[in-house]
Predict the structure.
Amino acid sequence: MQKYSIFSLIKNAFTNHQNWDVAWRDPEPKKEYDAIIIGGGGHGLATAYYLAKEHKITNIAILEKGWIGGGNVGRNTTILRSNYMWDANGLFYEHGMKLWENLSQELNYNVMYSPRGIINLAHSDAQLNAYARRGNSMRLNGIDALMLGRNELKKMIPFADFSETARFPIFGALMQPRGGTARHDAVAWGYARQADSMGVDIIQHCEVIGFDIQDGKIKGVQTSRGNIKTKKVGLCVAGSTSLLAEKLNMKLPIEAHVLQACVSEPLKPFLDHVVTFGAGHFYCSQSDKGEMVMGGDLDGYNSYAQRGNLPTLQHVLSEGVAMFPNLSRLKILRTWGGIMDMSMDGSPVIDKSHIEGLYLNFGWCYGGFKATPVSGWTFAYTIAQDRPHKLNEKFKLNRFNTGHLIDEKGVGTKTWIG
Amino acid sequence: MLEIKCPYCGKRSQNEFSYGGDASVKRPELGKEISDKDWDDFVYLRKNLRGKHSELWHHVAGCRQWFKVLRSTATHEIFKTTKVNE
């Protein structure tokens, strides 16, 4: 594989950049693989990469119905963080943050990791207390967390509404300084390129239409491009998980919901951090191009359509205007939607299933992008070793049955309330 | 914008309604022995269909009645709305 560096850039400049190698091949599916990953999104690509790199399993195919990176990894608001209170989540996502920090070097691909800090605003004493509790839990788990006062915040986010008449006055904030953003497409492409270089076949436009199961063991998959034999299958299809589970006669603890995001026209530097509104559900950051990247609530009804409706956008953006009043005169440039696999406690599942050789990875709710490296890392371990890693042992499929929920937000099973 | 035809009030904008989820989920019968599996099924597991989906909506900013909507989760098209007991 051609290494990307300043030298290869200069060398290729002499030939007008016409002679770069393709970043990944476009192979025909083989008859048999050691493992098959269904879903060529961030998590699927990362899983294949870590299977090849950490576990030396390289005879792998990634089967993708559309094209790689066309789903949620290309549709999110690119926020990275590990500001969770429960141990299961905190330790898991913190391992992910450590992977993010070296990802550009590891993949030889600039994922534009930007640890600009994530600020969660609090608008009451009670909320500030709750954030202090969460911050302390984070620090006990070795995660960076700071409490910020109103005066510090005035210097950091001067355009926020600090007036006396603000409907939701800013009392303070919880900040994770290492949180931030990354370039989402680059994450998918970087993992794809490295996985491909280690021999992983990335097969696009190949839909899985059925599974071959004998005596409770997986034997292969049926696809739109023929049958493929394998002993291990990892399901990494986020919003489409229930559709494949139906072919396995499984009902899962998730609902598919549409989440919208949008960007504004580009601005001069306006916001240095990722900021979330505490009195509702709104988060924003400024992209390197200057656009404000914004998102918030689900549309609030089951949906597989990758587009939403305007009332939700209006609601979300009015929260944004409550926080930063001068956003009100911005024009929106683009809006889009993605399908969230909303789990019933807000935490994911990375586990074995009752079928030998079939592994499940779903339930990422709004937070799948930041988990891309650690989801792939732990899922690869689970597939290779046929048992969960310590980091994902609590993300069990049967926790809903046994009552061991990981309900970080404590909102119960009404996933559409979010 | 979804336009939902409340069986009591007629067609209104989505803003007046709140969502109540899959209408096919049945609570286990009261007074009977209910296994953990039945509870799990009722509380957490969903068919999560792509296509025609029967669901509950609440006309919360209107007549405050609950009713059923048959809607496509793939296109958001609404096929029909009925009273809960219909």
Q: What stands out?
A: Residues 56 and 68 of chain B are 5 Å apart (CA to CA). The mean pLDDT of chain B is 95.
